[in-house]
Amino acid sequence: MHTIHDVARLAGVSIATVSAVLNKKGGVSAELTDRVEKALVALDYQPHQLARGLKARRTQTIGVVIPDLTNTFFAEVVRGAEDEARSRGYSLILCDSNEDGSMDRTNLDNLYARRVDGVLLSPSHVMSGLDRLSQRRFPIVFVDRIPPGFDGPAVVIDNFGGAYQATQHLISLGHTRIATIAGRQDFCNAIDRLEGFRKALQEADLPLHDEYLQRGDFQLESGYRSGLHLLRLPKPPTAIFSCSNKMTLGLMSAVTELGLRCPENVSVLGFDDFDWAANFSPRLTTVAQPTHEMGHQAMRMLLDEIQNREHGGNGNWNKKVMLKPELRIRNSTAPPGGSGPARASAS
Ligand code: RIB
User: Fold this and answer.
1) Residue 346: helix, strand or coil by DSSP?
2) Is the CB of 218 inside a 6 Å radius of any atom of ligand 1?
3) What is the model's pTM?
4) Which CATH number fits domain 159-289: 3.40.50.720, 3.40.50.10490, 3.40.50.11690, 3.40.50.2300?
5) pLDDT tens by residue, 200-219
6) Cα(126) to centroid(ligand 1), Å
7) Is any atom of ligand 1 closer than 6 Å to the C-beta of 193?
8) What's the CA-to-centroid distance between 244 and ligand 1, angstroms?
9) How far apart are CA 308 and CA 212, in angstroms?
């Protein structure tokens, strides 16, 4: 790999002249600029990012820590983050904690060791990352998952409103025996989804039987097991609100395994949309999160803060952004008894 010294030697100029051309500082004649540029091309010179980072005390690199790389939800959030980072000259280091809080710590330590300029974090444990905020090693923006009461830099969605609207949709179809498979109750997103579900039932004077509240963990297996349990009850629910994409996939496996049909025997409404939801049979009714926008806005918040600090900002940037989810009505929800899909939309 050629160095800046090789470029200077080939162009017959000083190191300072090559540096001025590379950093577009001006003050170099057209003739010398042309000689440097020809030498850069001839040697296929690539700046040494780590060396530049040490000098500028920046690496132009952002760490992204997510709980589950295999989950399309997080993949779409990361894509939104990367689109913003790339447009502003930053690269990403992506870390998967596999829903393990100790891996969050390891990933954050490794990212610090690599002197990333900041971190986007969707934590696998409710306490992950909070200590780093106080240490101010590097700015952190939380995305999607935050601990109860957290009001620091974060981009989340209105989980309560999304669940409330979804449950109202099931009630509007005439369902009175409505169950839910809730997510991990240590994060606000799952807590708020369950609260939105409860609120809609309460306002419609519908009871929530203990058996109809299944506690999942966002993973497929918990959706499958909860689905089997609910659908084997003496009086099974006629509608089930599943609070994450993977749990919905598990639930649909249980429906099929029991020889039941959706929505004829049971309506299913899942939190999180995903590519194949519209290609499922039946096409799933979902609460879609603005995943790309979540990643985009979280990265924008982080990069703005990094640049703010470079210009002497005092870092009092604690602000939380809440985005809106969207109810996408397809064919997996219908009146009890399944008398045809509920106004299936094209989405
Ligand atoms: O497993 C995906 C779920 O976990 C999504 O609903 C998202 O909110 C994440 O926290």
Assistant:
1) coil
2) yes
3) 0.83
4) 3.40.50.2300
5) 999 999 999 999 999 999 99
6) 14
7) no
8) 6
9) 49
